[in-house]
Specification:
Blueprint (H helix, E strand, L loop, with lengths): L1 H25 L23 E4 L2 H7 L11 E8 L5 E9 L8 E5 L4 E8 L17 E2 L3 H26 L1
Parallel strand pairs: 5-6
Antiparallel strand pairs: 1-3, 2-3, 2-5, 4-5
Bound molecules: 2-acetamido-2-deoxy-beta-D-glucopyranose.
Organism: Pyxicephalus adspersus (African bullfrog)
GO molecular function, one term: acetylcholine receptor regulator activity
Protein name: Ly6/PLAUR domain-containing protein 6B
Length: 169
């Protein structure tokens, strides 16, 4: 009985694949235009990117608007400022998880300034600069939970289909 179920599933999948193929043949790909700003790969995102700008305004104002490379998953911000809170340097970039291990605030001995580092995930999430231990954090809220939920959602049609096929047998 189990083998029979499996065979029927195979045949079913075969027909579905065949149907998709026929459909693809009829599509005129010359008429299919890519969207204005195509995402280069799944889960791609952008970060504000600048190197040692004088402050946050000048960083964001001139920040490059480009996609992050596939090995990065976060946006990182490094903020140097005086003890009076005046910005001295702002650097923003796409970052790997390892590059985000040193988030937080500390006294930067070389420059005599305070240094706060923050990371976040999500499209252009590094708008602000970190100024104290409350915002100099690794702020992850989007991609992982969302992709897990997405995976479960994607499974539901397959599960329903399988249940249905087993039911009619
Ligand atoms: C941290 O900085 C933010 C933004 O400048 C401010 O609103 C908040 O009150 C500060 N928190 C502490 C604990 O100083």
């Amino acid at each position: 009985m189990q083998i029979l179920n499996f065979l029927v599933l195979c045949v079913f999948h075969f027909f579905i694949t065949l149907k998709h193929r026929t459909f693809a043949k009829n599509v005129n790909f010359n008429n299919v235009r890519p969207p204005a700003d195509p995402t280069p790969f799944p889960n791609s995102f952008k970060c504000f990117t600048c190197e040692k700008s004088s402050d946050n305004y000048n960083c964001n104002r001139w920040a490059e608007d480009k996609w992050c490379p596939p090995n990065t998953h976060y946006c990182k911000t490094v903020h140097h400022f005086t003890t009076h809170g005046k910005s001295k340097s702002v650097t923003k970039k796409c970052a790997t998880r390892v590059e985000c291990h040193n988030v937080g605030c500390r006294h930067h001995r070389d420059s005599g300034h305070m240094e706060c580092i923050s990371c976040c995930d999500g499209m252009i999430c590094n708008v602000d600069v970190p100024t104290n231990h409350t915002n100099a954090i690794f702020n992850v809220q989007r991609s992982h939970r969302k992709s897990d939920a997405h995976r479960v959602t994607a499974l539901i049609p397959t599960m329903l289909l399988t249940t249905w096929i087993l039911f009619i047998l």
